[in-house]
Structures are given as structure tokens and as C-alpha cells.
Write a structure and sequence with these properties.
336 residues; 64% helix; mainly alpha; 12 helices; single chain
Amino acid sequence: MITPANLVAALLTLIPLLGAAFFAEGVAAGVRRLPLWARLLIPAALSAPYALVACGGGVFHWGWFALYALLPVAIACLLEQARRADSGSGGPRGNWRDYLVLATLGLAVDLRWFEGAWPAHLAIFNKMLLLDAGLYGFLAVRQLDGVGFDLRLRLRDAGIGLRELAWYAPIALALGLGLGFLHLHRAWPGSPATGLGRWGGWPGSPATGLGRWGGWPGSPATGLGRWGGWPGLAAIAGAWVFTFFFIAVPEEVFFRGWLQNLLERRIGRAPALFLTAALFGLSHFNKRTALFNWRYVLLAAAAGVFYGRAWRRERRVAASAITHASVDTIWSLWLR
């Protein structure tokens, strides 16, 4: 559903994300120069994308508008209090306010609390707006260091990310095939042998819940479908890029940049790595099933260890997002 209002809403949603990813120091410094009341009220502007999309889709509701205006402000207020509580401890160590914010954001996304506010297939806005609220709060208000959210990609990011992929791949194959969770395709997606001509509706598979977005890619509209029984290289690259920006980056910022980062300061590197990986696995309990999907949880928890290793090597979200996007893309194309 591409409309002028939705395009403006998408641009407004991406501005905070891109600002944090490419101009973090400048954004944080600029916000710190503002009076406290302005710093805390700025994130109320995240209600604007909701208003544009919902009005255009005929589902606008004042209650949802108030939620998208007030929740980011509440997050900023809590994180300002967390910053002050840590002000005498030599740097952010994390306290209950940080974890309350993380629990609220994580559960809202995982349990899809707010997706009913959006027109069909546009709930991706919810996930990205909550990410924006967290980025603003932890970067500009909480001033949490060591997050590593810098998307100015380096060759070293790719080297670290692909190294962890290589370590995880044999474990995933052994566990996944042994448990019957993974199913190796005899032909590439899009061939008659697999029956996966549209990549399972990607995006919009049960694993993503992101809607079809006009059949992107693999639909007749894109021309990236069968290519003689093979997905074209452009389609594979497109799937990876989509996964990187809209699945891997948000999840890696949350689990590694925020959660693992804060836990390390309290319980140490190794316990934080494994606890974060376990919570990452549990966040997949309701994927592809109405019940507790323990196989998915186990595979995701194992993957979380390697994502966490990639992040903590140089504390860069880009490295772990490369591992994450590569795992998800390979699974979606050849092992689902």
C-alpha cells in the first residue's frame, strides 16, 4: 500500500534510525544542549507516522495516537532517571528502569501488542517506531555507551560476522536436521521441485509477520522470481538487505547493543552472553506455531551465542547483524 502519506511516514520513521546509525555523536550532542523538558518531549513526535498511516488506512484511533505519543516520552523519562541514578557510579551500570524499558519494548514487539493499530501489512511501522523510541532514549537521554550502533560498514564487520556464521552453521545443521526443524531443499527456491516460487511469500512468511509488501521480491511485479528455476542474485541480495535492515539490525540493537551491553556491567561477559542468548531464544517461542516452539527456541538460543560473540568482539551491531541476516537468509531460502 504505497501512498504519499505512507511514504512520508516511512521517511519520518527512518530519520531517527539513520541519525543514530550515521551521526550518533552529533545527534546526542545536539539533544544534550536542549532544556530538559524539550529533551523529554521530543519523542512524542513519533506519533506523527502513526497518524499519517492510520488516517490513510481508515483505522485512526485517538487511543493509539496517545500511546505512540506518550510511550516514547515515558521511556525518555525513565531513562533520564536511570542516567541520574548512575551518575555517581562512574558510568552507566544499568538499573531496574533500563530493564523495565527493555521488557516493555521487547514484549510489545514479540507479543504484537500494538499491531492492531495499523492497517493490514503495515505493522512493520510499529516495530520501527518502538526501535526509534529506544534509540532516542538510550542514545540521547540515557547516554549509554558501547552500544555499537554504527552502520558505516567496515570490511572487518563482514569478516567477524561471517566467521561467526561459519562457526554456527555446522551446529545449526546438526541440531536443526536432527530435530526435524530444518529441511534441506533439493533445488533452489523458485524451481518446480521445491514449490517455493514466491519464497514462501517472503516478506510475509510466518517467521517475519511483515506482510507481503506487494509481493517483494519474487512476485511478477518485481521480475525477480524464478529465473529459470533459480532465484536471481539480485533477489538473493534483496532478501539479505531486507533482512539486515528490518529484522537483524532492530533485534541486534535490542539484544546485543542494549541488553547484553547492560548485563555485562552487572554480571560479567560470559554470563551476559549466555543469558542474552537464552532470552533471544525464548523470544522465538511463538514463531511458526500457536504453541511453544521449543525447537525454534533452541536453535535461536544457539544462534544468539554467536550473534553475541560477533557483537562483543568490537562492540559493533553491524558485525552481529551480518551474522544474523546471513543465517536468516540461508534458512529462508534453502532450509525452511
